[in-house]
Design a protein that fits this description.
Keywords: Membrane, Transmembrane, Transmembrane helix. This protein is mostly helical. The chain has 4 helices and no strands.
Length: 156
């Protein structure tokens, strides 16, 4: 996942920004432009908005993947710090892991909903598979470190 998911997140966020921006431009141009071009500009605005919705689904997908990788890193670091006797660092890393799992849960839910809207396309199935794999990774990595919470007095 690593750098590739981070770059994918930036790319999809940029595409989402551009498509929603272009849709907004078409809507504004509809009110300020020539009355004969209104139907074409409204159709363009609707198509661009639907493209922006598709791209935002992939933004949430890559957020899920990035958070899954962050959960794995934070959980691994927490286990290493606990073994080294660095309790404060372990608690901090476990809190990071818990935060990443929560973000991954939320973004996988939103991305799953958007993938469900695109379920009739091949890309919708591929997105759903990636969402489930990333969420499962985040959940399993956090579950591995969950046993440490019982041993840490102030861990919540």
């Amino acid at each position: 996942m690593g750098t590739r998911s981070g770059l994918a997140l930036l790319g999809w966020a940029w595409v989402t920004f551009l498509t929603f921006g272009a849709s907004g431009y078409c809507i504004v141009k509809t009110f300020l432009g020539d009355p004969q071009s209104i139907p074409g500009e409204l159709v363009a605005a609707v198509l661009l908005a639907s493209g922006g919705t598709l791209a935002s689904g992939f933004v949430f997908l890559t957020v899920t993947e990035v958070c899954a990788a962050g959960t794995a890193n934070a959980a691994d670091s927490a286990m290493k710090r606990w073994a080294q006797g660095q309790r404060a660092a372990a608690v901090l890393n476990l809190r990071y892991a818990r935060t990443f799992v929560r973000i991954a849960r939320f973004s996988s839910g939103v991305a799953g909903f958007m993938a469900g809207l695109l379920g009739f396309l091949v890309i919708g199935k591929q997105a759903a598979d990636r969402i489930h794999a990333a969420r499962a990774l985040a959940e399993s990595e956090f579950a591995k470190t969950r046993a440490l919470w019982a041993e840490i007095p102030d861990g919540k």
